Structures are given as structure tokens and as C-alpha cells.
TrEMBL record:
InterPro entries: Adenylate-forming_domain (IPR052979). Keywords: Membrane, Transmembrane, Transmembrane helix. This is Uncharacterized protein. It comes from Suillus plorans. It comes from the Eukaryota. The chain crosses the membrane at residues 77-98, 110-135, 155-178, 221-240. The keyword Transmembrane applies.
Length: 503
């Protein structure tokens, strides 16, 4: 693909941590140490400020994650929202059945469609974008940390309201059909055919089916239906933003396609793309240097037929929604400092935040990163993120996964972060979120709805807890034995950030 001005020089950028390490592991290593910057301008971080390495702990059996941590993370805001909505609706259904709520008996359709409207509205991209904009505009930085964390949690877990209202709407439909079937069987039959008009035309008070025209227009359910069709459900609004646009595809490896689109974007947004105008839209995190730039990028890892097709048959044009929707990263503007930890293609949802804000610290764990993701992505990283706030861990080079929670805790303390955002697979999110909760670190990770995933059960052959990332491979230890340190530098990993140069 042709390179734009924003991409010039990506091929000749020297990337110490993303370098393709091909030398033998027994060769000596030069280490450059970059201390994490202090928040206090008058208190520079020096080697003496860095804590000495703690003594090696005695070997002991790994402890399980405390039950309170498992409960708090399981019964999150998603489930709490669901519980509230579900209980309120079913209390109302109980009153309606007992004859204590005349409104519910007279206007059951309004309660059905009211619930479905809310269920769809909280999933609507435009509505969500407006919510994020409101929160980020009025509550960033100056409000108490607990309030900002609550805002992020609320925005991330709106799906609980969606699920609760959807199930409640179905329950109200059942009640309405049962109620109407006792009065006139024909209503039950016709209700299956023209739902909105017929249910509004029927009045349970007089048992007559002749209320049409002006009566229908005056009913709440009629306007709920109109609103859901036009403004909420996506029948009109999202589709007027759909465009067939040109795209350039870079294939740095068989595992990844990097898509480049016109115009820059703010951080924390996601894009939906498809080969078809009307079906199979897939969401990916947007990487952009800012709204003033000419391009933005998507990292599409090969995980299914759609992404495999991007590699095997790169498109020249693709369908996308021009109005992008906000993800939880969009609330990063609420915080003074934060950490963005991600694995593999999760970088796509994390990198814009760290590029566009100097107060966010990226930790990226992956395998053969530069070769897999290519010069465009590595160039974006090293043009905009200095080594003093960057930790890249190449598991192929370093012989395995890092001691993630140990690194995260120490960077969190030294960077004086307020929050951690996680983008990883199910197992990675599970482990890091549990570790952060146990350590008292506010953290938000990718959501999966109810239930334990099958691949998590399979992975339980090894114990899942916050310490499961903590083992460092023998290969990594053997590399460390060959370390040659610059004179006068106190090295303590991971209290300091290390760039390795293999000779």
C-alpha cells in the first residue's frame, strides 16, 4: 500500500522493544533504563528512588482467588442493572395480575413497547455516543475519582438495562396475550398478525374491537412503535450513516490485516465494517493520531471467515458506518493518568488513547510483535509514545508471558495511575481483573455476557488466579543471566522499563 506523509519513515524507525531478535540467547545484552515519570514536577525519579529488588519468596502453593473477589466481579454493574430492571417490572406484573394496577390492565402494549424501546435505545450507537460525550464533557478530571469510576462502569454495563428490559418486555407480552385471550379469542389470533394497530384498536374496558383512527394515534403504544422503528431500533438512523468507502489493506503477516481509511478520529471509538451493505457487520477498535490527521486504522486479526477473507482477498472498498460508536476507552478523558494493558490485536482498541494523551501508559503483550503487526503500527507507537511510558513484551523473544500483575502493580504505583483499562481474551481479562480487584486497583476489562466460556473451562487445567501470569520462563531467566548493564545504573525489573539490545 502507498505510504502517506503520516507514515513516512516507518520502515527505518529503530524500535528496541519491537526489534526482531534473531541473535542467540546466550549473547550479552545492553540495557537502557527509562524510569517512570513522577507526577510531581519537582521530584525527579532517580535510580535511588527505585525500590530494591525484594528477596526471592519461598516456594508455596498458589492460592485461589478469594471468594469475595469472585463475587464482586461476577455480580458487576451489568447484573445489578439487570436485577433492578427485572425486579421492578415483575413487581409491576404482580400488581397487574392482582388487579392493583389498572393502568397495566388497560395499556399493556405501552408497557411492552416501553421496555423494548429502552432495551434498544441503550444499544443504539447514536444514543451511546451522546451519553459518552455528555459524561466526558462535564465530569472529566475535576469530579471525585469514585464518581468518574462509576460513570465508566455505568456506561460499560448498560447492557444490563438492555437485557432486563428485553426480558421484561417479553413477560409483559405474555401477560397481555393471556389477558386478551380471556375476553375475545379473535383478539388473540389477530394479535399475531398486525400487532401494533390491532392491540391499540382493542379496548379491554368495553371489550370492543372498533377503536381506530384518532383513538389509535392517541395511544402511547402507537408512538412507542413509531419511535422504536425510526429513532431507536436502527431501522433508519444508523443506516443513513452507512457508506461504501475506499480502503487500503496492509498485510504484514498471515495473521493480521491493517486497514487504512480516510480522516482522523478521536480516541476511544470503534468502527463497524462489512462486505455487504445490510448484514454481517464486525466491530474493530480505531487507531488514529487525532481528528486533524488524514487517516485512521483498524487492526483485524484473523479469527473467522470474515477476517480471513480480508487477508486472502483484500477489498478495495468496504461498507462502514461513518458515525462511529464509543467504547469504554472513550472515558479515558475522565482520568488524570491511566494504564492501558492489552494483548495481541487488543492493541487496536487501546493505542489511540495512548497516542492522543501523554497521560496514558500502554503495556502491550504479544508474540513477534513487529513482524506480526508491521511497520505502520510500530511506527505509530514509536513516533508518539516515548520509551519512558511504554512497555512492550514480546513473548516469543522473551520466552513466555510476563509476570503481568507484578508489572502492572509497580507501573500503577510509579505512574500514579487512577485506573487500568484491559483489552485481552477471556482468560487474560479474567486473570488481570481478578488480580486488580484483589490489589485494590480500579480496572475495567472487556465484557462477556452471562456464563463461563468453554475455553475458560478447558484452560482450568492450570489454576486461574492472579498469580498465573507470574511465572517467568527458564529461557527468560537464561537471557537475563547474560545481561551487561551500563555503568552506574541500578537495574530493577520491572520497577524500571527496560529496552533490550542484542549484540
Amino acid at each position: 500500500m502507498s505510504a502517506s506523509d503520516a507514515e513516512k519513515g516507518t520502515l527505518d524507525i529503530h524500535s528496541p522493544q519491537l526489534a526482531n531478535f534473531v541473535k542467540h540467547e546466550k549473547n550479552a545484552v545492553d540495557i537502557e533504563v527509562f524510569d517512570v515519570q513522577s507526577l510531581e514536577k519537582d521530584v525527579p525519579v532517580t535510580p535511588q528512588d527505585v525500590a530494591k529488588p525484594p528477596p526471592a519468596p519461598a516456594k508455596s502453593a498458589k492460592k485461589s482467588t478469594p471468594l469475595w473477589v469472585l463475587w464482586v466481579l461476577w455480580y458487576n454493574a451489568y447484573r445489578r442493572f439487570f436485577t433492578v430492571v427485572f425486579v421492578v417490572n415483575f413487581v409491576g406484573i404482580g400488581f397487574a395480575i392482582a388487579g392493583k394496577w389498572p393502568y397495566a390492565a388497560r395499556y399493556p402494549g405501552a408497557l411492552v413497547l416501553g421496555n423494548l424501546n429502552v432495551a434498544i435505545l441503550v444499544r443504539n450507537e447514536i444514543f451511546g455516543h451522546c451519553l459518552y460525550l455528555f459524561v466526558n464533557t462535564f465530569f472529566a478530571k475535576w469530579t471525585p475519582l469514585w464518581f468518574r469510576l462509576a460513570c465508566t462502569s455505568t456506561l460499560q454495563h448498560l447492557g444490563g438495562i438492555h437485557s432486563g428490559c428485553a426480558i421484561s418486555g417479553v413477560a409483559w407480552i405474555v401477560l397481555m396475550v393471556v389477558h386478551q385471550s380471556k375476553t375475545k379469542h379473535i383478539v388473540f389470533e389477530l394479535n399475531h398478525r398486525v400487532y401494533a394497530i390491532l392491540t391499540n384498536a382493542y379496548d379491554t374496558a368495553d371489550g370492543k374491537f372498533d377503536h381506530v383512527g384518532r383513538y389509535v394515534v392517541q395511544q402511547q403504544a402507537f408512538w412507542y412503535t413509531v419511535g422504536m422503528s425510526i429513532f431507536c431500533s436502527g431501522i433508519v438512523l444508523p443506516w443513513i450513516c452507512t457508506r461504501h468507502v475506499e480502503v487500503e489493506v496492509e498485510l504484514p503477516s498471515p495473521k493480521v490485516a491493517v486497514l487504512r481509511f480516510e480522516r482522523g478520529m478521536q480516541q476511544g471509538l470503534l468502527a463497524r465494517i462489512s462486505r455487504s451493505a445490510v448484514k454481517e457487520y464486525h466491530a474493530f477498535g480505531i487507531i488514529s493520531e487525532g481528528t486533524h490527521e488524514k487517516h485512521h486504522y483498524l487492526i483485524c486479526g484473523v479469527q473467522g471467515d470474515f477476517t480471513k477473507g480480508l487477508v486472502n482477498d483484500p477489498p478495495k472498498k468496504i461498507w462502514t458506518r461513518e458515525l462511529k460508536f464509543a467504547g469504554v476507552s472513550n472515558t479515558s478523558t475522565l482520568y488524570k493518568r491511566g494504564i492501558r494493558i492489552c494483548t495481541g490485536t487488543g492493541l487496536g482498541a487501546a493505542l489511540s488513547t495512548c497516542i492522543q494523551s501523554p497521560y496514558w501508559y500502554p503495556i502491550w503483550i504479544g508474540s513477534d510483535q513487529e513482524k506480526t503487526f508491521g511497520p505502520t503500527i510500530s511506527g505509530l507507537i514509536h513516533r508518539h509514545i516515548g520509551p519512558e511510558r511504554l512497555l512492550l513484551w514480546d513473548s516469543k523473544v522473551r520466552g513466555g508471558r510476563p509476570p503481568t500483575m507484578k508489572i502492572l502493580k509497580e507501573v500503577y504505583d510509579q505512574w500514579q495511575a487512577e485506573v487500568v483499562f484491559i483489552t485481552s481474551n477471556y482468560v487474560g481479562n479474567f486473570e488481570i481483573q481478578h488480580g486488580c480487584k484483589e490489589a485494590g486497583i480500579p480496572a475495567f476489562g472487556t465484557l462477556w455476557d452471562f456464563g463461563i466460556r468453554p475455553h475458560l473451562k478447558r484452560s482450568n487445567k492450570r489454576r486461574l488466579n492472579a498469580n498465573s501470569f507470574a511465572s517467568v520462563s527458564k529461557k527468560e531467566e537464561s537471557v537475563a543471566k547474560g545481561v551487561r548493564v551500563h555503568p552506574g545504573v541500578n537495574v530493577n525489573v520491572p520497577n524500571t522499563l527496560v529496552n533490550m539490545h542484542f549484540n
